[in-house]
Every structure is written in structure tokens, then in C-alpha cells.
Design a protein that fits this description.
This is Nucleotide-diphosphate-sugar epimerase. The chain has 12 helices and 11 strands. By secondary structure, the chain is an alpha/beta fold. Strands 3-2-1-4-5-6-9 form a 7-stranded parallel sheet, with helices on both faces. The longest helix has 16 residues. Bound molecules: NADP nicotinamide-adenine-dinucleotide phosphate.
Length: about 280
């Protein structure tokens, strides 16, 4: 039995379906089993990572855990939750993030610092662990979907920022191998997509996928910042994103070959991700 956390989300949903395809028994952790849209054959168990005692029922009889810690809640009872998980499961595969280093310190509001803290907690338990450190998710570009659906134009800053975005399905594929096969204990997998595309090129690829032109219109960073905050993002996160995109204009993200090394097949191109998500942009 494998427990999948984040099972109703982008990566965890693929982990669930790929484990089912392999004939593995899957239990899904969710805060609301009644609302969780999960495939037949998956046992949904209520639990909240912020409330460690609530995890016991989900951990009963579990051999391995796919652990996804929703961004920025690592301060809530993380140590107690990790201890409980490691006390029951033999193996943990944790979704961290590219840019995390072993000695990175926690800092208020720092996503990378939060992942580094979780990694240290897991290492400290003695459980058999594998860390996935993916770069930016292709699914982040769904943020553009309302504009693309309404106008066919994405008005943002830093269209020349180069990103090696990864398909959420590829993160799941590596996670499932680490959960179900031996030989991944103690591995840290830095995962990216197979190529670097500018944001303007990503928008054009979405247009090709949906069969109508979509274009990038460059606006000022201040304008993008205002839009992100108006859309509900915290000022700190919006500033972080805009600054990171600014840096990626002069220093585009690099790709890693890790996915292909681990799986034996190339990582999924952004163009294919756009085809898979065409319905979200139409
Ligand atoms: N986006 C990126 O570019 C990027 C890059 C690198 C790393 N990451 C990391 O990837 C993770 C996000 O992955 P994702 O996009 O697959 O997630 P997601 O789609 O946002 O899904 C979040 C999942 O977490 C669950 N969840 C939320 N709060 C919970 C709680 N308190 N207790 C238990 N479960 C809870 C939700 O389940 P229920 O609602 O059913 O409870 C849902 O399944 C984050 O840790 C992020 O830092 C993201």
C-alpha cells in the first residue's frame, strides 16, 4: 500500500493514476474525501498535514509515502508529521524544488527554505528517502488561461525569460519509479523539461496547441506585479516571480538530463504539455 499526499493536485493526481496502472494499491490523503475526484480503486482517507495526529488512519499499513508539502505550510507541525510518517512507512519520496541546497536555511516566506527544512527533517528520521527537486512546472502557465481564452493575448513583462518548464506528469513518473523500485534511496533528482523556451515561445506553443494564434505583449514589470497581486497573489510572491523572470532574461534556465537518465526516455516537451492542456486554454 502506498499513501499519496497531494493526490488531488497536479503532480499527485498523476502519481495516483500511474501507480494504479502498475497494479499497486493506492491510498490518497485529502482534507475532504467527499469532494476529492479520484479514480475508482483509490481509497481516499481524510487527513491534514498541518494536524499530525490526523495522519494516523491514512498511514495504517502503508509501506511507502509520496510526500508533497503544499507550499508555505512547512512551519505547521512539520516535524511531528514527518516523524509520524517515518514511524510507519519504510520509504518516502518527497517533492522538493530545484534551487534547494542541503544547507539552505529557512526564512519567513521562503519556499526553497521551507523545502530545505523538510528535506533535513526527512533525512534525520532514518527512513529510506528520495528527493525530487523539480524546476518550474509547465502547469504554472495556466495562470495565463483566462487572458488567452478572452483575448488571445498575454500581457506580461519579461517575454524573453527562458524557462525549462517540466510537465507535472514527468515529476510523477520519476516519483513512481522511486516509490516502487529499489535503487533510488538517497538520490536527489533535479528535474526539468527537455528544452528552454522563452515565455513568448511558450505562449506561441499554446496557440499552436489550441489552433489559433496567441501572442505575447510586453508590459512593464510594475504592471505585471500589479496584475499578479490583483489576481490574489501575495506581494512577496509576486515580487519574487517578477524578479526571477527578470533574471531569466539574461540567464535563461538550464535543462538537466536527470529525467532521461532515470527513466530511459526523454522528458516531455512543453509543446506536448500544451496539447495535453489545450482544453484549459480554449
Ligand atoms: N509550481 C512550481 O513551479 C513548483 C516548482 C517546484 C516545486 N513545487 C512544489 O510542488 C508542490 C505543489 O505541487 P502541485 O502543484 O502538484 O500541488 P497542487 O496541485 O497545488 O495540490 C495541492 C495538494 O495539496 C493538498 N493539500 C493542500 N493543503 C493540505 C493540507 N493541509 N494537508 C494535506 N493535503 C493538503 C491538496 O489536497 P486536498 O485539497 O484534497 O486536501 C492538493 O492535492 C509545492 O510543494 C511546491 O513548492 C512547485
Amino acid at each position: 500500500m502506498i499513501l499519496v499526499t497531494g493526490a488531488t493536485g497536479n503532480v499527485g493526481g498523476h502519481v495516483v493514476s500511474q501507480l494504479l496502472d502498475r497494479g499497486v494499491a493506492v491510498r490518497a490523503l485529502t482534507r475532504d474525501p467527499a469532494a476529492a475526484a479520484l479514480p475508482d480503486g483509490v481509497e481516499a482517507v481524510r487527513g491534514d498535514l498541518a494536524d499530525p495526529a490526523s495522519l494516523d488512519a491514512a498511514l495504517d499499513g502503508v509501506e511507502a509515502v509520496f510526500l508533497l508539502w503544499p507550499t508555505l505550510v512547512a512551519d505547521h507541525a512539520a516535524a511531528a508529521a514527518v516523524e509520524r510518517i517515518a514511524g510507519r512507512a519504510r520509504r518516502v519520496v518527497y517533492v522538493s524544488a530545484r534551487g534547494v541546497s542541503d544547507d539552505l536555511e529557512r526564512a519567513p516566506g521562503s519556499i526553497l527554505g521551507s523545502h530545505a527544512y523538510l528535506e533535513r527533517l526527512i533525512r534525520g528520521t532514518g527512513v529510506e528517502w528520495t528527493f525530487l527537486r523539480p524546476g518550474g512546472f509547465a502547469v504554472n502557465t495556466l495562470l495565463w488561461a483566462p487572458e488567452i481564452r478572452a483575448t488571445g493575448v498575454v500581457r506580461r513583462s519579461h517575454g524573453a525569460a527562458g524557462r525549462a518548464l517540466i510537465h507535472e506528469q514527468d515529476i510523477a513518473t520519476v516519483g513512481v519509479l522511486a516509490l516502487t523500485e529499489d535503487g533510488h534511496a538517497g538520490a536527489v533528482y533535479e528535474l526539468t523539461g527537455p528544452e528552454t523556451l522563452t515565455q513568448a515561445e511558450q505562449v506561441a506553443a499554446i496557440g499552436e496547441a489550441i489552433g489559433r494564434p496567441v501572442r505575447w505583449e510586453e508590459v512593464s514589470p510594475e504592471n505585471t506585479l500589479r496584475e499578479l497581486v490583483a489576481g490574489g497573489m501575495s506581494a512577496a510572491m509576486a515580487e519574487g516571480i517578477v524578479a526571477a523572470h527578470g533574471a531569466m532574461v539574461t540567464s535563461p534556465e538550464t535543462t538537466t538530463a536527470t529525467f532521461e537518465k532515470v527513466t530511459g526516455v526523454p522528458a516531455t516537451p512543453f509543446r506536448q504539455w500544451a496539447v495535453d492542456h489545450a482544453g484549459d486554454f480554449r
